Amino acid sequence: MSGTVQSVSASPQHAFSKARQSQIRLLAGLGVEGDAHAGATVQHLSRVRQNPDQPNLRQVHLIHAELLGELAGQGFDVRPGDLGENILTSGLDLLTLPQGTRLHIGAEALVEITGLRKPCAQIDRFQPGLLKAVLATDGSGNVIRKAGIMGVVLRGGTVCPDDEIRVQLPPLPYLPLERV
């Protein structure tokens, strides 16, 4: 199973969107070099207020490019980096990967998936109605969060558009992704 990096983004500020880059550098145990969310402990401001010492399980944010196409079909104009992702992928159903899946990205980087992104009200300030568009419910009434997945960097490296992403599934039994 493999996919491709479509674009990469980062921001040194705690802003909702991130600027597209020609490349990003992942740092083991920290995240994206120069990004406001990089760090061994939690960097998302709402979580820092709760407990600044908790581990940062949200070092890297990945979204599947197919979501942007889905949103465009609903009338939204969402471009790479707009939803705050660091890596926009294609060809991988990120949301169905189990906890602990490892993504080998490019020649060096290794990211372990920790869980689902929990979209917040900021997404509606970016474009009204977008929060509802990135949430759905399945036949049993369970919430489906489509705003991407989060991970931690196990091995650093440079990540560029067109890099291959190779999937390494964890040992069985697989655990579904939960919000982090």
TrEMBL record:
<dbReference type="GO" id="GO:0030170">
    <property type="term" value="F:pyridoxal phosphate binding"/>
</dbReference>
<feature type="domain" description="MOSC">
    <location>
        <begin position="19"/>
        <end position="168"/>
    </location>
</feature>
<dbReference type="InterPro" id="IPR011037">
    <property type="entry name" value="Pyrv_Knase-like_insert_dom_sf"/>
</dbReference>
<dbReference type="InterPro" id="IPR005302">
    <property type="entry name" value="MoCF_Sase_C"/>
</dbReference>
<dbReference type="GO" id="GO:0030151">
    <property type="term" value="F:molybdenum ion binding"/>
</dbReference>
<dbReference type="Pfam" id="PF03473">
    <property type="entry name" value="MOSC"/>
</dbReference>
<dbReference type="GO" id="GO:0003824">
    <property type="term" value="F:catalytic activity"/>
</dbReference>
<protein>
    <submittedName>
        <fullName>MOSC domain-containing protein YiiM</fullName>
    </submittedName>
</protein>
<dbReference type="InterPro" id="IPR052716">
    <property type="entry name" value="MOSC_domain"/>
</dbReference>
